[in-house]
Every structure is written in C-alpha cells, then in structure tokens.
Amino acid sequence: QVNTIAPMALIRTFLPGVLRAGHGHIVNVLSMSAHRPIPGASAYSGTKYALNGYSLAARMDLVDTPIRLTCISPGLVKTELLESAMRGKEASGKVYTANSHLNPADIADNILYTITRPSHVQIADIQVFPTNLVAPPTSK
C-alpha cells in the first residue's frame, strides 16, 4: 500500500488545489525495479511497476494543464530500508560492499534538478544508478 495506494491517494487529494494554483510538480520515486524486476522481490517490483503505469496515465491526464509529473527511478541507495528488509546491518552491509550504490543526497539532487527546470520543460523520467554500471544488477 505504501508503494502504490499512498502515492495515488496523495495525488488525488492534493491535485485539485495544485490545479487551482495553476502550477505544480508531482515527483514519484520509483525504483529501477519498475523497469527491471528484481528476482526474489516480485511484490516490490510489482508495486513499482504499478506506480510507473499510474504515473504514465496521470501524465496523460495532466497534458493540458501546467502540472508536471516526473518519475525518479534510483538503483541501489544506501538507506535503512535495506537494513530493515534484510533484518540487520550485517546482511545489508554485505550488499553495499558487494555492489556500487548511491546515497540519498544523490537522489535528492536529481529531484531538485527536476523541479527547478523552467515551467515549459517536462522531465518525464530519470533512471539513476552508479557510474560504473551499464544497468543495475538484477540477480541475487
């Protein structure tokens, strides 16, 4: 529900006010798994695919408005989420040691870049992952 229902509900709740204001920018944070599923994480990947599809449709609904909608799809980011999912720092630490990763500030920088573009510029999607990867790994 956090990955799909909550963003949809928030957009539905706040969109009328944003439309009345005559400007605004919706940023949905997806994941690279919205584009390339992660083995062993089918439910997570499915929720991110769902939010991506919703965002595409919502962008179509907003096409005749001044409201922009951007999706940011990060690869592996060093956060407490993985630690919680893997039930401990030791297991998550091994993932970060074995794989190149981004930091939360990297994602915040991309969001800031997106929302500060001129109003006639729509950045639909950003896929961001470490420089030394062709694409984020999808295997366990």
TrEMBL record:
Keyword NADP: no
Chaperone as UniProt keyword: no
Molecular functions (GO terms): oxidoreductase activity
Gene3D superfamilies to which the protein is assigned, alphabetical: NAD(P)-binding Rossmann-like Domain (3.40.50.720)
Coiled coil: none
Keywords: Oxidoreductase
Domain of life according to the entry: Eukaryota
Family: Belongs to the short-chain dehydrogenases/reductases (SDR) family.
The name this protein goes by in its record: Uncharacterized protein
Source organism: Perkinsus olseni (Perkinsus atlanticus)
